[in-house]
Amino acid sequence: MDFFLDPNQPLATCSRKECNDDCPQNEILHCHFSGIDLLKFLLAVLPAFVIGGIGIFNLQGWKILMAWILFFISYFGLIEIRVMCSHCPHYAEPGHNLKCWANYGSPKLWTYRPGPMSTTENIIFIGGLTVIVGLPTAVFLLHAEWTILLLFSFALTIAILFMRTTMCAHCINFACPLNGVDPKIKSSFMDMNPSIASAWENPDDN
Q1: Rounded to an integer, what distance in angstroms lies between the CA atom of residue 92 and that of residue 181?
Q2: In DSSP terms, which residues pair with 107 in a beta bridge?
Q3: pLDDT tens-digit readout, 169-181
Q4: 114-133: string of b/e by CB count within 10 Å (b at 16+)?
Q5: Kindly report the CA angle at 102 between 45 and 187, in degrees rounded to 5?
Q6: Is the Cβ–Cβ distance between 15 and 110 less than 8 Å?
Q7: Measured between alpha carbons, how far is 200 from 45 in angstroms, rounded to an integer?
Q8: Which of 16, 24, 73, 125 has its Cβ near the most Cβ atoms within 10 Å?
Q9: What is the dihedral of CA 144, 150, 155, 160, to 10 degrees?
Q10: CA dist 202 → 102, 192, 193 (Å)
């Protein structure tokens, strides 16, 4: 069983016959991932959510914590996959589960939909993130627990900075509102992925 995509095999959407150093995107975009990429992601984002979970439990108990965890799992495991991940080229790869750094192992229950996210999808995507970050923040503010709020904010800031500089700046899911890839790089990627370029030029057809 292959846990990640073959780094020598072009993406299903790519027009190139092989992946090598001649590819203009080779050192810029993350078309392939490894276990190290997944580990870096987890180490960057988990501290904030562990701090948030512990704080919610200590201040509000199991019920609020479980509600937060259930929403967390539902959002990242299902909702986000539908509104954002299904637009990603990685979603077009063979197999029933995603093999990317952020949602590794999540089931691909919907069809691949290249092209931009709709306004509704953007609202759902941002709204879900707001709830996940907002609940622990609200709990800490309500109880005036400034120390844990500071720790949570610091860990969250580190996670966001890591994501923006290390992941989002090299991510091939251009539909994501958090994507930070340079427009010129996006254009070059589109040239090698004509089906994606067509979907972006004619979003109403998808």
Answers
A1: 20
A2: 97
A3: 999 999 999 999 9
A4: bbbbeeebbebbeebeeebb
A5: 120
A6: no
A7: 31
A8: 125
A9: 90
A10: 28, 17, 15
What value does the mean pLDDT take over residues 18-24?
A: 79
Angle at 171 between CA 190 and CA 25, to 5 degrees: 50
pTM for the predicted model, two decimal places: 0.89
Q: Which residue has the tokens 């091939």?
A: 172
Convert the pLDDT of each residue in 118-150 to its tens digit.
999 999 999 999 999 999 999 999 999 999 999
Q: What is the mean pLDDT of residues 86-115?
A: 89
**CA 88/CA 38 separation, integer angstroms:** 17
CA-to-CA distance for 32 and 53, rounded, in angstroms?
Answer: 31
Domain ranges of the chain: 35-205
Q: Is 115 left (phi over 0), alpha (psi -120 to 50) or beta?
A: left
Query: Do the beta carbons of residue 80 and residue 122 sit within 8 Å?
Result: no
Contact 139, 55 (CB under 8 A): yes
Structure tokens at 120: 């509704």
Query: If we measure between CA atoms, which residue out of 32, 34, 197, 49 comes closest to residue 133?
Result: 49
